[in-house]
Amino acid sequence: GAVVSQHPSWVICKSGTSVKIECRSLDFQATTMFWYRQFPKQSLMLMATSNEGSKATYEQGVEKDKFLINHASLTLSTLTVTSAHPEDSSFYICSASFRPWARTSVSDTQYFGPGTRLTVL
Amino acid sequence: EDKVVQSPLSLVVHEGDTVTLNCSYEVTNFRSLLWYKQEKKAPTFLFMLTSSGIEKKSGRLSSILDKKELFSILNITATQTGDSAIYLCAVEATSGTYKYIFGTGTRLKVLA
After folding, report:
1. What digits encode the pLDDT tens for the residues A45-103?
2. Handedness of CA A13, A114, A29, A106 (dihedral sign)
């Protein structure tokens, strides 16, 4: 159980175009979804946290107008990279949690998707 | 089906104890195995392992990979309360494209 999928797995696009990445929880309702960006040999950089039905909370330094997040249902969140540029090329990973995010000292279990590789030419 | 299994699911120890966390995997086209520590939201990177038998060490933490038996262990010696976290194992695979398969983590709590 607790499977998270992402689509597409890999996308190559031209500079200036927009790309939408989907994150789905397949067998559970994900009240909270997280979007990360991964750089080689580095930590996952949290971009934003989204609770279903409300606006996403972006981390400092992440442009909300460039990385549009929609969490319209309990099983689907989308990340749209608008006007993508080569520096946006990266691995984007989402994760999902059963419960609404609360600022506790120990994190709740997150179930991670397999990631989407974005290459912008 | 690719999968990564971590054990135990949860562990409570006292300060000063040594713990061993396990990660086994069944993945096509293995590329690397990564360990993360998750205290709040975002996991922080600990180790990346690609070769069997070579121990990676950082302070009180160490990790090793066995590609024949398809597992890795993460050791923490002389545990401290600050080690309390969820430890995630992920395997990077290349099956036409890159993907990550995460385990569900081991929740470690270190008591003073």
Report:
1. 889 988 887 888 899 999 999 999 998 888 999 999 999 999 999 999 999 887 554 44
2. negative
CB half-sphere exposure, A61, CA atoms < 13 A: 4
- CA distances to A96, B23, B27 from A82, rounded to whole Å, are 23, 37, 33
Best B32, B40, B100, B104 residue to mutate vs chain A (most A CBs within 10 Å): B100
The DSSP annotation for chain A comes to ---EEEE-SEEEE-TT--EEEEEEESSS--SEEEEEEE-TTS-EEEEEEEETTSPPEEPTT--TTTEEEEEEETTEEEEEE-S--GGG-EEEEEEEESS-----SSPPP-EE---EEEEE-
Q: Do B41 and A46 touch (CB under 8 A)?
A: yes
Q: How far apart are the C-alpha atoms of A9 and A14, rounded to whole Å?
A: 17
Q: For residue A1, what pLDDT band results from cuts at 50, 70 and 90?
A: low
Write down the residue that tokens 């249902």 correspond to. A73
What does the block give as tokens for A31? 């009240």
- Return the bridge partners of A69, or none: A79
Chain A residues with CB under 8 Å of B98 CB are 10, 91, 115, 117
Question: Strands of A4-7's sheet, edge to edge?
Answer: A4-7, A19-25, A76-81, A67-73
